[in-house]
UniProtKB/TrEMBL annotation:
<dbReference type="InterPro" id="IPR001683">
    <property type="entry name" value="PX_dom"/>
</dbReference>
<dbReference type="GO" id="GO:0005829">
    <property type="term" value="C:cytosol"/>
</dbReference>
<dbReference type="GO" id="GO:0005886">
    <property type="term" value="C:plasma membrane"/>
</dbReference>
<feature type="region of interest" description="Disordered">
    <location>
        <begin position="437"/>
        <end position="514"/>
    </location>
</feature>
<feature type="compositionally biased region" description="Basic residues">
    <location>
        <begin position="457"/>
        <end position="469"/>
    </location>
</feature>
<dbReference type="Pfam" id="PF00787">
    <property type="entry name" value="PX"/>
</dbReference>
<keyword id="KW-0009">Actin-binding</keyword>
<dbReference type="InterPro" id="IPR011009">
    <property type="entry name" value="Kinase-like_dom_sf"/>
</dbReference>
<feature type="region of interest" description="Disordered">
    <location>
        <begin position="634"/>
        <end position="661"/>
    </location>
</feature>
<dbReference type="InterPro" id="IPR036871">
    <property type="entry name" value="PX_dom_sf"/>
</dbReference>
<dbReference type="GO" id="GO:0004672">
    <property type="term" value="F:protein kinase activity"/>
</dbReference>
<comment type="similarity">
    <text>Belongs to the protein kinase superfamily.</text>
</comment>
<dbReference type="InterPro" id="IPR051837">
    <property type="entry name" value="SortingNexin/PXDomain-PKLike"/>
</dbReference>
<feature type="compositionally biased region" description="Basic and acidic residues">
    <location>
        <begin position="640"/>
        <end position="654"/>
    </location>
</feature>
<dbReference type="GO" id="GO:0050804">
    <property type="term" value="P:modulation of chemical synaptic transmission"/>
</dbReference>
<feature type="compositionally biased region" description="Low complexity">
    <location>
        <begin position="483"/>
        <end position="501"/>
    </location>
</feature>
<protein>
    <recommendedName>
        <fullName>PX domain-containing protein kinase-like protein</fullName>
    </recommendedName>
</protein>
Length: 661
């Protein structure tokens, strides 16, 4: 069938189930009205965000369109006089932000076309009903026996999937439903395999699968025809809704919340599990189970929309199971979605949040056991049971199914392999999305904890305790060194030598040891600091310690070229004073360790350049080795002191090896 060959090919890369968040960043008052600048973000990526400008009248128009849902939405009221006052605008902005939060967190409202167009006009500006009519009209050119009765406007939740009520010209009283849909982001089948599998769907015979009357596809969309059922779907039965009504009107705010009877729950649940097991055994991916995709035919449930996985459309519950990394296969997705279906059948409404911490009273504890295995915190963290395991549970094991229809769905081996590869690609994209969400959640949790008021107080207390502890250690060390110095002076012990080029340094227990008072919260000091402490305890030359600090801090530094010219053997006391004075101005409370040590490094660099003299350039004969220069220097010093005769003659001769060749 070549009814749509000339239409452009290609799948829609945008996933309509990714939630949108909106935050009002600012407002601007013009001559007669106020505009609100809104930042909209798709998913968790900050880069995938954009700005829109909306007036209050735009919010009011959206709210009027959403009244069909029957919800009481918190839109701030209108005000004719004084609506340009600054305080009123600020208060209205808070109310509009609350309104946006409500509609973006409601699972049904956030996925409807009205909200998507309001928040993302660039991607949802097309008229999808007109596009679908164009495709259907081209189809009727080659199939004149079909005729459109009326469009079934917005009876489904998908934006890019449209429905039409049909009839056959030879049988005018018989009604059928035509569904048309674009390709989705999870379409990984080749065009040839995709069209072959779509055309195979009418041959699928199963007592619990709603039969497809006609199916065809091209490179960009698919079209299927089924019989119209006046009773509607399982969701229509639960919500007491009319099948032809819009999705928002039927399911957003049900008038009466009442679950099904226990026997209905057991029978319908067993039938759905049986058809899921059949599809899994055939290697046919599904992943689109929810109450609107289960058609009621008397006391029998029949599964709908097998083509969704072939088209690559995202699941209705994707925003739920993408939060849990253990739900990473289409089989586990089906089991999790079955938990949602069972919850709606039991309580007459969807769960408020997932995972579910506690379940309300149910007709049987066996129902709660199945719900806990699919929707509880433990199940979402540890993984879903298999369909076979659910069939063995007490709720469904004793249900007797009486059907004479034999299941039949023959898939060629080549297409089975194509389905397997497509299934792996769908699961791979799901796993990658779950990984990104998990990383984002960890980062957000860490930032929230680090910026909380309790955490700030705790860090301040720790910083004070650490500062007091270091002060006590300094006093004890000072006392010990003072007593040791007195003992050394009384016994006539000589003091350690210091460099002749600089004055004697002050006491190490005094303020010279500035690094001892630097308390760095949330992180440990660099390993260099421990090394420096060791050098002090060994009572080595203080100038060598400073040189060690400088060399450690200036490693891989941009200012290394300037510092290489400095004579680190000529470290003056001014350097110590300069560093100490600069470090007194550091703010050590609630500081990031990396930034704090960067400032310390910059302080030492600046003090070195300011106080330490440059190296003196000395000329020497290039043909003499270092050994020869040392001997010559020794002879010159001895001659100056009049001690030339005390030098052994062997030490006065320059070795032959000292001359460079």
């Amino acid at each position: 069938m070549a009814f749509m060959e000339k239409l452009p090919a290609g799948k829609v890369l945008l996933d309509d189930t990714v939630p949108l968040t909106a935050a009002i960043e600012a407002s601007q008052s013009l001559q007669s009205h106020t505009e609100y600048i809104i930042r909209v973000q798709r998913g968790i990526s900050v880069e995938n965000s954009w700005q829109i400008v909306r007036r209050y009248s735009d919010f009011d128009l959206l709210n009027n369109s959403l009244q069909i849902a029957g919800l009481s939405l918190p839109l701030p009221p209108k005000k004719l006089i004084g609506n340009m006052d600054r305080e009123f605008i600020a208060e209205r902005q808070k109310g509009l932000q609350n309104y946006l939060n409500v509609i973006t967190t409601n699972h049904i409202l956030s996925n409807c076309e009205l909200v998507k167009k309001f928040l993302d006009p660039n991607n949802y500006s097309a008229n999808y009903t007109e596009i679908a009519l164009q495709h259907v009209s081209m189809f009727f050119r080659s199939e004149p026996k079909w005729e459109v009765v009326e469009p079934l406007k917005d009876i489904g939740w998908r934006i890019r999937k449209k429905y039409f009520l049909m009839k056959i010209k030879n049988q005018p009283k018989e009604r059928l439903v035509l569904s048309w849909a674009d390709l989705g982001p999870d379409k990984y089948l080749s065009d040839k395999d995709f069209q072959c599998l779509i055309k195979l769907l009418p041959s699928c015979l199963h007592p619990y699968i709603y039969r497809v009357t006609f199916a065809t596809a091209n490179e960009s969309s698919a079209l299927l025809i089924r019989m119209f059922n006046e009773k509607g779907t399982l969701k229509d039965l639960i919500y007491k809704a009319k099948p032809k009504d819009p999705f928002l009107k039927k399911y957003c705010n049900p008038k009466k919340v009442q679950g099904l009877e226990l026997q209905q729950i057991k029978t319908y649940g067993r039938q759905v599990l049986e058809v899921l097991k059949f599809l899994h055994d055939k290697g046919f991916p599904y992943g689109h189970l929810h109450a609107s995709n289960v058609m009621l035919d008397g006391d029998t449930c029949r599964l709908l929309d097998l083509e969704n996985s072939l088209l690559g459309l995202p699941s209705f519950y994707r925003s739920y199971f993408s939060q849990f990394r253990k739900i990473n296969t289409l089989e586990s997705v089906d089991v999790h979605c079955f938990g949602h279906l069972l919850y709606e059948m039991t309580y007459g409404r969807p769960p408020d949040s997932v995972p579910v911490d506690s379940f309300p009273p149910a007709p049987s504890m066996a129902v709660v056991a199945v719900l806990e295995s699919t929707l509880s915190c433990e199940a979402c963290k540890n993984g879903m049971p298999t369909v076979s395991r659910l069939l063995q549970m007490p709720l469904f094991s004793d249900v007797l199914l009486t059907t004479s229809e034999k299941p039949q769905f023959k898939i060629p081996t080549k297409l089975k392999e194509a389905l397997r590869i497509a299934k792996e690609c769908i699961e791979k994209r799901l796993i990658e999305e779950q990984k990104q969400i998990h990383q984002h959640r960890r980062l957000t949790r860490a930032q929230s904890h680090h910026g909380s008021e309790e955490e700030r107080k705790r860090r301040k207390i720790l910083a004070r305790k650490k500062s007091k502890r270091s002060a006590v250690e300094n006093n004890e060390e000072h006392s010990a060194k003072y007593s040791n110095s007195n003992n050394s002076a009384g016994s006539g012990a000589s003091s350690p030598l210091t460099s002749p080029s600089s004055p004697t340094p002050p006491s190490t227990a005094g303020p010279h040891r500035w690094y001892r008072h630097a308390t760095v919260p949330m992180g440990s000091a660099p390993p260099m600091l421990g090394k420096m402490e060791k050098l002090y305890t060994q009572k080595q030359d203080w100038e060598l310690i400073v040189a060690h600090i400088v060399n450690s801090l200036l490693r891989n530094s941009d200012k290394l070229k300037k510092v290489e010219k400095l004579d680190l053997n000529q470290v003056l006391y001014n350097f110590t004073v300069e560093v100490r004075n600069r470090c007194k101005g550091l703010d050590l409370i609630d500081r990031v360790p990396e930034k704090l040590w960067t400032e310390v490094r910059d302080i030492i660099q600046a003090a070195m350049i300011k106080t330490i003299p440059n190296k003196k350039k000395c000329k020497k004969a290039k043909w003499l080795s270092e050994e020869a220069l040392q001997i010559a220097e020794k002879r010159r010093k001895a001659k100056g002191k009049g001690e030339k005769g005390k030098i052994h003659p062997s030490e006065c001769r320059l070795p032959k090896s000292s001359r460079k060749r």
